[in-house]
Write a structure and sequence with these properties.
With 240 residues, the chain is α+β, with helices and mostly antiparallel strands. It is built from seven helices and 14 strands. It binds zinc ion.
């Protein structure tokens, strides 16, 4: 297969097929607020949310074998990532300040003639959600490794904004003692969770739900007689 035969995620979407996370992506236990070496672990079984977790980074230059697997199903040559919480930040900020101005204040005129609130309570309106394009590097497709090596530092650089977006209705950023984690249910937008608004027990329920959905999908595929992923990588889904 040559890279020209692999669609980028955007063009996959143009043909209305979504590039879904690969089953391997569901195995990641990915936290922010620290280096990749301590913040990302890999679940040993994608269908068991309580299975053993091992570090993604095994020493200074080595990584878990999952790192070579595709990030998406179907594999893509590039993917443009946004973060759900930042995509919604400006809208949430506007809602939070909706009743403060009574039509006065710092508005910009939009093309349709209506005013867009630009500043309130000493805060500037947040910009639109940023995006990051991750391209395949060593293989024809974007691997888990391509993805985490690009997206983890990107999210860390955005962490102050992410915490501000979580706290937008209280005008106080999410405090550092609360964890932020990647919820492995989508690639773009990337869904983040935090331990203030999602209790640890609720997070575990979410994870069990992901594992159940994955188990059901695998069972459906096997019933149909399909080879999982169609490329002989079935063994990748259970790590021991
Ligand atoms: Zn205000």
């Amino acid at each position: 297969m040559t890279s020209s035969k692999l669609a980028s995620c955007e063009s996959v979407r143009d043909t209305s097929q979504r590039a879904r996370p690969s089953l391997d992506f569901f195995c990641l236990r990915w936290f922010l607020s620290g280096p990749l070496s301590t913040q990302i672990k890999v679940l040993s079984s994608v269908v068991d949310a309580e299975s053993l977790q091992t570090p993604y980074q095994t020493d200074s230059t080595s990584f878990h074998p999952i790192s070579a697997c595709p990030i998406s199903d179907p594999p893509v040559s590039s993917i443009t990532v946004t973060a759900d919480v930042l995509n919604g930040w400006a809208g949430d900020w506007e809602d939070a300040h909706h009743n403060h101005t009574h039509g006065r204040g710092d508005f910009a005129t939009q093309p349709d003639g209506t005013g867009l609130l630009m500043r309130c309570c000493g805060e500037d309106r947040p910009g639109p959600g940023p995006s990051l394009t991750v391209a395949a590097s060593r293989q024809e497709f974007v691997t888990i490794h391509d993805f985490v090596m690009a997206v983890h530092p990107w999210l860390l650089a955005l962490e102050p904004d992410i915490r501000a977006a979580y706290g937008v209705f209280h005008s106080v950023p999410l405090a550092p003692e609360f964890d932020i984690l990647v919820h492995p249910v989508g690639l773009s937008p990337l869904f983040l969770l935090n331990s203030k608004y999602a209790h640890p027990a609720a997070l575990e329920v979410e994870r069990r739900r992901v594992a159940e959905v994955v188990a059901r999908k695998l069972a459906e595929k096997e019933k149909k007689g399909d080879e999982v992923e169609g490329n002989g990588m079935h063994h990748h889904f259970v790590y021991s």
